[in-house]
Amino acid sequence: MTILAITGGIGGAKLALGLTHFLTPNELIFLANTGDDFEHLGLYISPDIDTLIYTLAGVVDPDRGWGRSEETWHCLDTLAYLGEPSWFQLGDQDLAVHIARTHALKRGKNLSEITDRIRIALGVKYRILPVSDDPIRTFLHTSIGRLSFQEYFVKKRCEPTVNQIEYEHSNACLNPRLDLSELEGVIICPSNPYLSIGPMLAIDSLFEFLQSTRIPVVAVSPVVAGKAIKGPTAKIMQELGVAVSAIAVARHYKELINGFIVDESDIDSVPEIESMDISVSAYPSVMTTLQDRIKLARHSVNFVRSLSQQ
Ligand code: FO1
Predict the structure, then answer these.
(1) Ligand 1 centroid vs 81 CA: distance in angstroms?
(2) Which of 138, 192, 209, 298 is the most exposed place for a label (fewest CB within 10 A)?
(3) Helices first, then strands: H and E counts in the chain
(4) Per-residue pLDDT tens for 143-163?
(5) What global pTM score does this model have?
(6) Ligand 1 centre and the CA of 74: distance in Å?
(7) Could you tell me if the CB of 48 is within 6 A of ligand 1?
(8) Does ligand 1 lie within 6 Å of residue 67's CB atom?
């Protein structure tokens, strides 16, 4: 039986790495967000898939959390010199991945096939499935208009006020390579619920599966003591009129989860979350070191397994 880890962005990749330290490639499968994907300079870029592959392969830049370590930027410098857009930083090694992906897609391969090729080439033994092979795109309606995800996130540095989030997809299908019958449980990683997990849950069949399945579905809170661990989660929650708290994240996932992990500093929120008919576990959930990631990952899997025995 297999654990499905639903992940997007840097927070998700941290827990994902922890999971690979004790689950085998047969026991773990990743479903990755593609709502941040976009075309830039004629290249198809899939940031959350690449962040996950680079993290699991041990080649991610440890400070940025995205892109490759020991990267060089000759191509980007030359593009800037030529007057081409350089706001989205593409390193030289990273560019090779975008070129290979774009080339494969142009030859008729799908995103799953090319993701498999890239992760195998980088030595990653774990299956990584894009949530869909069909396009899904996140747009933000903001104080300065409708922005694509990367325009908002990178070009405008998350500064505009967000009024609404839109997931554009024309009936995108859940990745058919995902065999739901082989799953023993699901972990929703501590990724941004709106920007990273939201686009995936916009696929009806995934949402309905999580809502109706009898296997345990556990989410790990990305909000700790009223603050987001990383990125614009807290800012977006505030702007959407939602309290920045683990309770609000649990309420957001309420229909889908039967287990929720809060940081031990949020122990006071346990009764209110339990009143939503969700089992709660309080555990240190800020992942600074590799040991933190492994411990939280192990705790998440143990929690999933304890819920399946109930
Ligand atoms: N994030 C930035 O803040 N600035 C960048 O220039 C940037 C470039 C980039 C290139 C490749 C890649 O895979 C990721 C990149 N990211 C960059 C990260 C990315 O925008 C975000 O981490 C995700 O889309 C959010 O999950």
Answers:
(1) 21
(2) 298
(3) 12, 14
(4) 999 999 999 999 999 999 999
(5) 0.97
(6) 18
(7) yes
(8) yes
**Rounded Cα distance, 157 and 301, in Å:** 35
Name, in order, each residue with C-beta under 8 angstroms of 59's C-beta and a sequence gap of 6 or more: 68, 69, 122
Is residue 211 lining ligand 1, measured as CB closer than 6 Å? no
Instruction: Give the strand pairing for 183-188 and 217-220.
Output: parallel
Q: Would you tell me the crossing angle of helices 74-81 and 92-106 to the nearest 10 degrees? A: 80
* Residues 6 or more apart in contact with residue 251 via CB below 8 angstroms: 276
One-letter amino acid of 270: V
Give the bridge partners for 29, in sequence order. 4, 127
Burial (CB count <10 Å: 0-12, 13-18, 19+), residue 86: middle
Taking only the tens place, the pLDDT of each residue in 100-115 is: 999 999 999 999 999 9
Q: Which residue has the tokens 């997990």?
A: 197
